User: Which sequence fits this backbone?
């Protein structure tokens, strides 16, 4: 069985602060894929990143960066210099190369001006 | 953006009535999925399809059935709606490869359908 835990249910920061969203996963498979999705207040789910278990390189995309550590089964997401538009619910998800995406419970990020 | 539409976008119905939600894609992707989103649970897979007339159960399939008669359409049916099925329903698609699982592919989501069962 696979499981994704996002222990932070809600985070509040002031604009321009850096913020890290934690994601811890459990799987018995050696091949798996990790994802982050963003759900803004409008409700749609927006794909942010996909990572496979054999690629532990950190990734940076503008103000977003991801830290994948197999040793701690974590795939954390950092937003640098947060903006009000970053306010959303963020989901981490795991797929063990099967057909089911397992989601964490989500972290609600509120960025205040 | 992936071409995925869901209809209706909002629906209120009464306990015991049948309900059908439709997902339509214009991407010609092989895999289609139905999820439900409930507070504290993230999204949970109900059913998925890996081709026309090929479907399988997900984590929370009880009380739901699906059909896929065309590549572009995936229908979710609640035969007799219950209040516990009040939720937001999302359809997703992924490209997939013939004969293999879709786990390597990114799933792209539709806009969602908010269903309320009174």
Assistant:
């Amino acid at each position: 069985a696979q499981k994704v835990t996002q222990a932070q249910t809600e985070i509040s920061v002031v604009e321009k602060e850096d913020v890290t969203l934690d994601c811890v996963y459990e799987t018995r498979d050696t091949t798996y894929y990790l994802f982050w999705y963003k759900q803004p207040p409008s409700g749609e789910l927006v794909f942010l990143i996909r990572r496979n278990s054999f690629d532990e390189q950190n990734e940076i995309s503008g103000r977003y960066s991801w830290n994948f550590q197999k040793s701690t089964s974590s795939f954390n997401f950092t937003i640098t210099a947060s903006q009000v538009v970053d306010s959303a619910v963020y989901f981490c998800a795991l797929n063990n190369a099967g057909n089911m995406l397992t989601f964490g419970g989500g972290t609600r990020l509120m960025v205040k001006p | 953006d992936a071409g995925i539409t869901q209809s209706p976008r909002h629906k209120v119905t009464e306990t015991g009535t049948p309900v059908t939600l439709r997902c339509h894609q214009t991407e010609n992707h092989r895999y289609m999925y139905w999820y439900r989103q409930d507070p504290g649970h993230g999204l949970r897979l109900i059913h998925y399809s890996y081709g026309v007339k090929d479907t399988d159960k997900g984590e929370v399939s009880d009380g739901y059935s699906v059909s896929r008669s065309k590549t572009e359409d995936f229908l979710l049916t609640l035969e007799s709606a219950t209040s516990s099925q009040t939720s937001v329903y999302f359809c997703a698609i992924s490209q997939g490869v013939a004969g293999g699982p879709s786990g390597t592919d990114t799933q792209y989501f539709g806009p969602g359908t908010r269903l309320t069962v009174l």
Observations:
- Residues 6 and 111 of chain B are 7 Å apart (CA to CA).
